[in-house]
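assembly run, all chains below
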Amino acid sequence: MSIPTAPPSGFRDFLPEQVALRQDAIATITRVYKSFGFQPISTSAVEDLAVLLGKGGDENEKLIFKIMKRGEALERAHAEKTDLADLGLRFDLTLPLARYYSKHGSTLSHPFKALSMGPVWRAERAQKGRYREFTQCDVDIIGADSWGAEVEVITAILTVFKTFGLTDVKVHVNDRAHVKAEIEAAGIPAEQQNQVCIEIDKLDKVGPEKVRESLTALVGAEKAGAVAARLLAQGAAAPANLKTISDAIQAAVPGTQIAFDPSLMRGMGYYTGPVFEFRHASLSGSLGGGGRYDKLTEKFGGQPIPACGGSIGFERLMLILEEKGMHAGSSNPDAVVTVFSDDLRGRSLETATALRAKGLAIDVYPGGGKLKAQFKYADQKKAAYAIVIGPDEAARGVMQVKALKTGEEHALTLDEACARIAARV
Amino acid sequence: MSIPTAPPSGFRDFLPEQVALRQDAIATITRVYKSFGFQPISTSAVEDLAVLLGKGGDENEKLIFKIMKRGEALERAHAEKTDLADLGLRFDLTLPLARYYSKHGSTLSHPFKALSMGPVWRAERAQKGRYREFTQCDVDIIGADSWGAEVEVITAILTVFKTFGLTDVKVHVNDRAHVKAEIEAAGIPAEQQNQVCIEIDKLDKVGPEKVRESLTALVGAEKAGAVAARLLAQGAAAPANLKTISDAIQAAVPGTQIAFDPSLMRGMGYYTGPVFEFRHASLSGSLGGGGRYDKLTEKFGGQPIPACGGSIGFERLMLILEEKGMHAGSSNPDAVVTVFSDDLRGRSLETATALRAKGLAIDVYPGGGKLKAQFKYADQKKAAYAIVIGPDEAARGVMQVKALKTGEEHALTLDEACARIAARV
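ok done. output:
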């Protein structure tokens, strides 16, 4: 059986231009987040399964790529028919952050504004636009119960979008605590509240009629009507805290469109208060989102600590940027120095070193052979110039500098070559 | 049982200052590598086990963190008692590169100069300075059989070290093909050649006497003597190709110390020609290394393609940089804008937005409460200034700007504040 050359299903290779664009985007996001005072943290890709799983397993268990035990531990697990896996790949950056803060919180500033970026892995069925390995870009504020935290997180993320030229991002906001109170007021018993939330969450996809039908099937017509009147009616009033948050965001980022969306739930079970989502006309899903999760650190045995965070859907952002025709800053070399012969390779290398010392990006042809192939290589690398140092040039202490676009060629000294290449003459 | 707050054994969390230093170092390495014309590529963290394993398994199998099959595939594997794992975490960047090139080579420049950075995972016993997750920084040239490729890779890596101020890095070089020829000439039969290499490789650690003893035990005194005379004798002459490579490197990076080291093997089984290693006085191990591997792409069913690559030991480089007291470029905010009251939070947010628009890094206190705690926060964040906008200031259209080092305080307009903060007056 031949060995595959493609990455596994749902995983991706990136070509040099894609990598450059992604790295530029990551650098921009980092810069904007840092300008808000968020501090970068980093956790491992691999976590103990106990960290990733809820007590007694949960809905997330299916998402986790589990890592098998090794050596004696694996043999013992086989023999004793216990769990074969002990570790797993993180499926988001929020659980690792809660663990991290529980461990290191006392050494960090308070409140702590965390910036966390990196790949996460989900064992979901791969499909167009949904990958099993993708990048998340999170900001979180831990230790602040003020609505100022929500404002800061949402403002930072909106500023990232604005920096990329996306000024038409709309913010949807809701409050889980408000939803919970309204559902309770509608007489829904505790054990049905989660399911009611899940049905309400489908509003965007299936419309109000279908939601009402499934709520009726779930809790009866009367209670379904009460829920609908409280949460799905046109013009339902936003709770006061969301109004405050919206006003403050509009003060910080004038012109921002914010909509109260009483059906917005966001999937993660750990949200306890305001939740939010970023939408863009060119996407059917969201461009990011987040919310308040005041109890997540309880899991690690500490006091509940108020926290709020948000995430940019990096892969979706990249889709939009690619559609907009955004290109990475050039990583093409300024010049390729050809190698006339093995005897003269030393001269080419010295020349390259001297040109690099002046701040130029200089590629030396790494193979041997004919100049024709070397010029083709310079074209492939999208270099602006090719440099030839043959025996004549070596003897005269010059180099031939050829502009690859125009074909114009000059015999130049090092300083002359440097000036010409830097000025793109 | 309580849930751990530490990462799993051999894995690490990084505090904000460490992350900043690591990110700065990665950016510097990337910049230098790119200035040599290397192009960034990226592959997935997860590979099919068939890609990671040699035909019929090999010495690397124990290194691999294996990922369990999921859903029906896992049930089937349990029922049919077949392999429970189908994927694994990459343990280096070279095998993934060989796969990548086999898939994408026709769309890449030729020869292809690849820059590959990222985490790799090894299921080794964790110990001081050896981690199960660590970063590699590789450059490779694929499709060049010229010794120019070795020179380019080694020169690029030396230039990285030099950029960090490490001018005292010594290069050790050897040639696997030369070793193989000498061992054959000493009469060692094919099936013992690998073991002989492994014994020679121990020279640095155990000294020549011990190596000779174990060689004698392995192949008898006569052949052991012949091997020692050819490879371990003082002043053994370097083969001509290594001399050429050394001369060219010294032309490109004047002052480089290069030593022929006939006992240098480098672990990876895929090397076929010159191998090299970077040493620094402050480390017992190496600071990086690499070599020529002309047959690795054969694994993926293609023609053998000449290739050569090298890697920087990023974690060891970080150790040296930390010892040298290197700090990251500041990611501290220029100022923290305090929040006098919830009523005035909007003013603080607008002020922060206006200051950020002038290029300053501005942190708004994300919580509520007393100014004293907010000033403490500004100290923790190592901000240069704290800004207060109370009712008086709001009415007068100014802000109090306090230099946290000196305690000096002024009521300033936006433009005045911006000028003062930017100038660090």
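Residues 16-35 of chain A form the longest helix (20 residues).

Chain A is about 40% helix and 20% strand.

not gonna interpret more than that til we talk
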